[in-house]
Amino acid sequence: MKETKTQKANHVPKIKLKTKHHSVVKKPQQKKITPEKPVQEKIAAEPEKPKVRFITIDSEDAGQRIDNFLLRTLKGVPKSHLYRLMRKGEIRVNKKRIKPVYKLLIDDEVRIAPIRVSEEKDAVSTGLHIVANLEKQILFEDDRLIVINKPSGMAVHGGSGLSFGLIEALRALRPEARMLELVHRLDRDTSGCLMVAKKRSTLRHLHEQFRDKNVQKFYHALVKGHWPTKLTRVTDALKKNDLKSGERVVVVDNQLGKESETRFRVLERYRGATLVRAFPVTGRTHQIRVHCQTSGHSIAMDAKYGHEEFDEQMKSKGLKRLFLHAASIEFTHPNTEQRLKIEAPLEASLEKLLSKLVKE
Questions:
Q1: Are 317 and 311 in contact (CB under 8 A)?
Q2: For the chain, is the Cβ count within 10 Å smaller at the N or the C terminus?
Q3: Is 187 noted as a catalytic residue in this protein?
């Protein structure tokens, strides 16, 4: 009996030990696979719920309309949606309903109801070569503004079939910047100095300088033929026309057009071409390009106002873009009140072309 009991005792524990060992293996697998990972994945997938926001207006934002402030603050929210929220009272100032035209005052408290800002479909990747290269093109930067050497072929902002422009690219490069707004514009095919404000007070200050003609912009342009030394001023009035195709062209119209003035100076003469410096006293659309055309000296590779034979000659020498470059900009710094002159060098392709031309 003792042996039987001993055999049973020895046999039963072995079975139990196997069972225990089997269950010990299973339990950790169940914990790792079933409850933990799916819960973590579910939590990670849930977007954070938007919350009520309260913004106190400071001197930088005071003076602007509430709708413009919201469009800048809530990027990605359609304008119509913001107007609807204001009508419903979901957006208030000092606990009161306001209209889109309300101008913000210092210490106003803006209450913004929970709004889910949609992610931009065409988000700019800082990994893109053309965007990453902009860092190298910055000519001047401080806490108030950026002056950048805009590349030819890059629009200043998205639109007209473009997913992004220079300003969107800069916002991607400077995500910490509270504000980045264009102070002025350059045509897509024009390169050179472009100012971007980091503060609303800077934007206002520089706009005032433009209105008072205290900002001086000098352009370099390679034009067809022999530009007369005595031709230092062109004052043809300009009028914008929108074609059926949607394209915008500017024509000379001294009766219905707007007063315009560009001053010119010869920098270098070449066989069949002249490098001129242009100073636009007024800032009309395509002003320099049209004033060159109407004077009989179109700018090289100007798709709208150019001269076909001259363009073919320049193309054969390697020119692939409009030869119009904002070479320098001079203005008073909004903070230091010092007069600054920022210069942008010609890109290598333009320098290479000039080296191929024969000087006169």
A1: no
A2: N
A3: yes
- Distance in angstroms (rounded) separating the CA atoms of residues 117 and 76: 6
Q: What is the pLDDT of residues 181-229, one digit of tens each?
A: 999 999 999 999 999 999 989 999 999 999 999 999 999 999 999 999 9
Mean residue pLDDT across the chain: 83
CA distance 130 to 110: 38
Which of 143, 172, 146 lies closest to 60, judged by CA?
Answer: 143
Identify the H or E element spanning 34: none
3-class DSSP state for residue 218? strand
Q: Which two tokens stand for residue 7?
A: 């055999």
Which pLDDT score, from 0 to 100, does residue 244 have?
Answer: 61
| pLDDT on residue 46 | 54
- In angstroms, what CA-CA distances link 149 with 165, 200, 345? 14, 22, 8
The mean per-residue pLDDT over the stretch 265-278 comes to 97
Contacts of 325 (CB under 8 A, 6+ apart): 190, 191, 192, 219, 220, 221, 344, 346, 347, 350
Q: What is the pLDDT of residues 11-41, one digit of tens each?
A: 444 434 444 444 444 444 544 444 554 444 4
- Structure-derived torsion over alpha carbons of residues 117, 123, 126, 131, reported in degrees to the nearest 10: -130
